[in-house]
Design goal:
The structure holds two protein chains of two kinds. By secondary structure, chain A is mostly helical. Chain A contains twelve helices and no strands. Chain B has two domains: 224 residues, Rossmann fold, CATH 3.40.50.300; 92 residues, no CATH class. Helix content of chain B is 31%, strand content 22%. Classes of the chains: A mainly alpha, B alpha/beta. At the A-B interface, helix 9 and helix 10 of A face helix 2 and helix 3 of B. Chain B: Belongs to the ABC transporter superfamily.
Chain lengths: 315, 344
């Protein structure tokens, strides 16, 4: 276990270094730059722009810029936003709770619904329910998230008026029910693709297990079909799903980007797109690193959980 | 339906047929099979893959896919501990569950995959006990420990906590046997229980089953394709080919003087170690078992049979004939074949 953790730590450091180099390079390769914001200010001269660039360190060679950014990053100084000069770490940590709220709700929905639909589909293979779930999953997977989000807003906010059209809460109303009402639509939209993925994988895992010999053994013991399915099949089918949960975290982060933008959700995803538009390099790089760390932690948790759930796996 | 008479037998299968529904219509996997097993007796079911021997046993356990995917015909009369006789093919599912693992138990070919990989073996055995007996987990685990010790696993208390992957193939098969014995079954169906094991382990498992049978008086239906095992363990033998019984009788006569050309071929295909005067070529039966979807007309074995007579064997489906001493054979020419075989 200790050597496993040490190994993972070393791997993670290497991975984070790679992510930072590639992210930094791609970001600076993209056309435009933070200076174009200042260029819009009336009366701005070339000399002044060059001076600002020098102040921001943008006139130095790229590897040197990277080195300066990284060496400050590891000491905990993530730099300041080009837009409002706020510390990057403070900006991101201010946005994290909203993103976690949305993502955890979506994960809970996806796991609960996806697992249920998948298990029922496998147990009643070939039934009308199974066919509907299969078609439904295909449809859900092919609907673009932004489009589905807009449709949900149009129907439930604009036409029916049941739900708010966006943001996390009504200004001046901090009640739980207000937060909850705001959460429903974006969480459902974000969860949709995940429900589809989870139900398909769960159905597959379940069918895989049901055809195995020990299920026949369980039946030969005289267990009821319900016990066979729950105690023997379901328990084993869940094992690959733990790995899937670790792998699905990046997808979810990507989905949050779009969903947060559509629902003007004040989370990290929207901050990322906004900052990207401004070429706010320090914030974009900060979010990139936080996301990478989240994904690494997610997969580490998945591995530890797998080992805890499956006696055949030893870390 | 009054209580049918099944004399002393614990299981009396009458005219069992099993057909699976496929896209192209029903396919008969087992056709008109009848046999009995008495308490304390071992019946060996022999045949190649696809002969219907496993399907026969699964049908008796009602573990074939449910209707309408499978169609079961005939009767499987089973005598319960309390003396009542019931048709296993007709009892409701709930009553069948009460018998499975309780009065009729089954062990399987693959000990590697027949145990739940994420459940401790003690719990897997205890589960079988608790399903049929009004006992708590503690008591069931005590019983599991006793059973593990009984099937020859040392340090049984500690092994209760083992997971299947901690155990060798032979040990796992012992665990399977312990599980099957959980409720003292009257009938044990063993579907190729030694096929996946090393030869030395095979012998140990066979010996264990014989010991347990002597002790408990349970009947055993032993499915195998290994004729050496048949000679070792069986009292009577039933040879199946293409879903039908082709020969059955006491193990001695059938193994010494098989009447059905198919059984003769099977016996010749057994490698022997007692050759002293050089190399004896191993004979095989030419061809393969016909698919149940494309059975030849007449005798199913006719295309592979060295004694087949054109115009007779490929035209008439042979009945199961009574030969002598209770030996039965499904061959139109068995007496002619016996005469030919008797000549050196």
């Amino acid at each position: 276990m200790a050597s496993f953790l040490l190994n993972r730590l070393i791997q993670s450091v290497i991975l984070l270094a790679l992510v930072s180099v590639i992210g930094f390079a791609v970001l600076h390769l993209a056309p435009g730059g933070p200076l174009s914001q200042f260029a819009l200010i009336p009366g701005m001269t070339q000399e002044q722009l060059a001076h600002i660039a020098h102040e921001m360190g943008l006139d130095r060679p790229l590897p040197l810029q990277y080195w300066e950014w990284v060496s400050r990053l590891v000491t905990g100084d993530w730099g300041h936003s080009y837009r409002d000069n706020q510390p990057v770490l403070a900006i991101i940590s201010g946005r994290l709770p909203a993103t976690f709220e949305l993502m955890l709700t979506a994960i809970a929905l996806a796991v609960l619904l996806g697992v249920t639909v998948g298990v029922l589909g496998a147990v009643r293979r070939g039934s009308i329910f199974d066919s509907l779930a299969t078609v439904g999953a295909m449809v859900a997977l092919s609907i673009p998230t932004f489009w589905f989000g807009l449709i949900v807003i149009y129907i439930f906010a604009v036409k029916l008026g049941w739900l708010p059209a966006g943001s996390r809460s009504t200004v001046g109303d901090g009640s739980f029910s207000d937060y909850f009402r705001h959460l429903i639509a974006p969480a459902v939209v974000l969860a949709l693709v995940e429900v589809a993925i989870w139900s398909r994988y769960m159905r597959g895992a379940m069918l895989d297990v049901i055809s195995q010999d020990f299920i026949r053994t369980a039946r030969a013991k005289g267990l009821s079909e319900k016990s066979v399915m729950l105690r023997h099949a379901f328990r084993n089918a869940l094992l690959p799903m733990i790995e899937l949960a670790g792998l699905e975290l990046p997808t979810l982060l990507g989905g949050a980007l779009v969903t947060e933008t559509v629902f003007t959700w004040p989370g990290m995803g929207r901050l990322f797109l906004d900052s990207l538009g401004y070429r706010d390099y320090p914030v974009v790089m900060g979010i990139l690193m936080v996301s990478a760390v989240l994904v690494l932690i997610g997969s580490l948790f998945a591995d530890i959980l797998s080992a805890a759930a499956d006696p055949r796996i030893r870390l | 339906m009054g209580a049918p008479e099944i004399a002393t037998a614990v299981l009396d299968v009458r005219n069992l047929s099993v057909a699976f529904a496929t896209h192209t219509g029903p396919v008969a996997a087992v056709h008109d099979v009848s046999f009995t097993v008495a308490p304390g007796e071992t019946l060996a079911l022999v045949g190649e893959s696809g002969s219907g021997k496993s399907v026969t046993s699964l049908a008796v356990m009602r573990l074939t896919p449910p209707a309408p995917r499978t169609r079961l015909d005939g009767q499987a009369l089973f005598r319960s501990r309390d003396g009542t006789v019931r048709d296993l093919l007709a009892v409701p599912e709930r009553a069948m569950r009460a018998l499975r693992g309780n009065e009729i138990a089954m062990i399987f070919q693959e000990p590697m995959t027949s145990l739940n990989p994420v459940q401790r073996v003690g719990d897997q055995i205890a589960e079988a006990v608790m399903t049929h007996r009004p006992v708590g987990r503690r008591e069931a685990l005590d019983r599991a420990e006793h059973l593990l010790a009984r099937v020859g696993i040392s340090d049984a208390r500690r092994r209760l906590a083992a997971f299947p992957h901690h155990l060798s193939g032979g040990m796992r098969q012992r665990v399977m046997i312990a599980m099957a014995l959980a409720c003292d079954p009257a009938l044990l169906i063993a579907d190729e229980p030694t096929t996946a094991l090393d030869v030395t382990v095979q012998a140990q498992i066979l010996e264990l089953l014989q010991d347990l049978q002597r002790e408990t008086g349970m009947a055993i239906v032993f499915i195998t394709h290994n004729l050496g095992v048949v000679a070792e363990i069986a009292d009577r033998v039933m040879v199946m080919y293409a879903g039908r019984i082709v020969e059955q009788g006491e193990v001695g006569p059938v193994m010494r003087a098989p009447l059905m050309p198919y059984t003769q071929g099977l016996l010749r295909a057994v490698p022997t170690l007692t050759v002293s005067d050089g190399f004896v070529p191993l004979t095989s039966i030419p061809g393969t078992v016909p698919s149940p979807t494309a059975l030849p007309p007449g005798c199913a074995f006719e295309p592979r049979c060295p004694y087949a007579l054109p115009g007779l064997c490929d035209a008439t489906t042979p009945p199961l004939d009574d030969a002598f001493d209770g030996q039965q054979v499904r061959c139109l020419r068995w007496d002619a074949v016996a005469a030919l075989e008797a000549r050196p």
